[in-house]
Amino acid sequence: MKKIFRAVCALILTAGLVGCGSAPASTADAPNTTVEVTTTMATTEATTTAAPETTTAAPETTTEATTVLEYAPIERAEIDPEKPIIALTFDDGPTDLTPQILDILEEKQVVASFFLIGNNITDATADTVKREHAQGHEVDNHSRTHSQMPEMTAEEIAAEIQYTSDKVEELIGIPTPFFRPPYISVNDTMYEAIDIPFICGYLPNDYMDTVDVQQRIDNVKANAKDGEVILLHDFSGNVQTVEALPTIIDNLVADGYQFVTVSELFEIKGVTPEEGQMYTIVW
Ligand SMILES: [Zn+2]
Fold it and tell me: Domains in the chain, start-ordered, CATH in brackets?
């Protein structure tokens, strides 16, 4: 059943990508001033870990420390707007695979954006969501149930988005800033009912078992563009993306890319997301 669903998804996704925008981005439009990317979202957690300087012998570990406190924001170089930027995004989490993705991002000192399915946010995955936020990643919205939303009423659509945003806000204190439609399947009712911007992305087909690790690596390398959103998946069992990710990142770094969240992509490119549009490249 899931396989059939994914196959349908692929068709819709391919069709959807046609309208997602694919013109090459121009770096000429980039502002001359350097943009300092802040990670204020996670500073509240970070500051609570700092021991007062006057303390003579702070204990090495405290039993009270929560999982979140173990994760400091990923240290990043200042973004140079003259150089290309790109946003890695992951759909369908949080799952048991997500911590492996987070470990790689931490090791590579790269930030990403996670588009969560509301029904996947449970007691078992709550710490993963907190970790995403604490490390400076963006937590975005991929509906509550991952259904074909064009078949829903406006009220049902709004409830899907609200549920996931509320669950995220309960955990990290901020609502979800962006929405990615399940299967990139959209209609006018959705654009009217959902009041956060829609994000598409370049899809290296990493949701298909038949697309192997090397193909995933090659697809991203061949299709990376300045200002682009890359659409990957952290659904449970997607181990080929875990295997591909370190090389995907290394290749992008070698090609001069800097990694930003989706919000930062718009901010750095000086673009205000418009209603009724779905973005794959921001410039
Ligand atoms: Zn999805």
Answer: 2-16+83-279 (3.20.20.370)
